[in-house]
Design a protein that fits this description.
Helix content: over 70%
Keywords: ER-Golgi transport, Membrane, Protein transport, Transport
Oligomer: single chain
Subcellular location: Membrane
InterPro entries: NSF_attach (IPR000744), TPR-like_helical_dom_sf (IPR011990)
CATH class of one domain: Mainly Alpha
Largest sheet: none
Membrane topology: Peripheral membrane protein
Number of helices: 14
Low-confidence stretches: 6-19, 21-46
Number of strands: 0
Strand content: under 5%
GO molecular function: soluble NSF attachment protein activity; syntaxin binding
Mean pLDDT: 81
Structural class: mainly alpha
CATH topology of one domain: Serine Threonine Protein Phosphatase 5, Tetratricopeptide repeat
Length: 269
């Protein structure tokens, strides 16, 4: 049977309303009233590192070996979480998994896959926190920060912050100060966030003072003073320079720098 010809401009019949037409002819309509609720993204959980996927391009022997370590670690973790695995050596399997994650991370470092290395170090730290071996967890977070710094300074700051928090809880304030200083350096040189850099340098200086490392504290404070001056916080900068100047006078150290600090103080006042 010949098909009816449709006049130019469309058939009037196509425009006639039909009770069943819209539902039957437009099943994929984007104007469904429920679509916003069905497509709305759920709140995301805190960012957790994940195992590296197989790269799309050619894979180096080191990358292949690292992925094998990751797969072995995941197998150990799954085994430790079963009922029988928890009864018979669950903690030992988790320790083995952490070691395998570290081996994977170091293998990725050899391959110069910095993000994958950082992710693997974070996975190791996560397992070690579950095992309550905080010092090792902090150490691996620091390792993660060092490799992330090459490609993702913000992620490096997150790792150093977690490490500093761990060492603060452990009472290792000198180590916590060191990593606050690392964060400040990244904020200053990589992110250009001088306010955050000042905050972390001040925190580092406070911890160093508490551990009687006044020289290290003064180095951090001088960084604060210079950045405060850049932000036109001249009173704060002058106060810090004066504090360091008084310390140098009282301790008779670095006498050759006294004139410099005296000039700086006079300039800001």
């Amino acid at each position: 049977m010949a098909e009816p010809q449709i006049p130019e401009g469309g058939s009037p019949a196509a425009e006639e309303p039909s009770p069943d037409g819209p539902a039957a002819s437009e099943p994929n309509s984007t104007d469904k009233p429920d679509s916003p609720t069905t497509t709305e993204a759920a709140p995301t959980a805190p960012k957790q590192p994940t195992a590296a996927a197989k790269p799309a391009g050619p894979e180096t022997p080191q990358e292949k070996k690292a992925r094998e370590y990751i797969a072995q670690a995941e197998k150990k973790m799954k085994s430790s979480q079963t009922f029988l695995g928890g009864l018979f050596g669950g903690a030992a399997k988790m320790e083995d998994a952490a070691d395998l994650y570290v081996r994977a991370a170091n293998t990725y470092k050899v391959a110069k896959k910095w993000k994958d290395a950082g992710d693997a170090f974070c996975l190791a730290a996560d397992v070690q926190m579950k095992l309550d071996v905080k010092h090792e967890a902090g150490s691996n977070l620091v390792e993660a920060g060092q490799v992330y710094k090459r490609e993702d300074p913000k992620r490096a700051v997150e790792c150093y912050s977690q490490a500093a928090e761990i060492y603060t809880d452990m009472g290792r304030f000198t180590m916590a100060a060191r990593y606050h200083s690392n964060i400040a350096e990244i904020c200053e040189s990589e992110l250009g966030d001088f306010e955050q850099a000042i905050t972390h340098y001040e925190q580092a200086a406070d911890y160093y003072k508490g551990e009687d490392s006044t020289g290290s504290a003064n180095k951090c404070l001088l960084k604060v003073a210079h950045m405060a001056a850049m932000l036109q916080q001249f009173d704060k900068a002058a106060g810090i320079f004066e504090e360091v100047f008084v310390y140098l006078v009282c301790t008779h150290t670095l006498a050759y720098q006294l004139g410099t600090y005296a000039c700086v103080i006079c300039h800001y006042f």
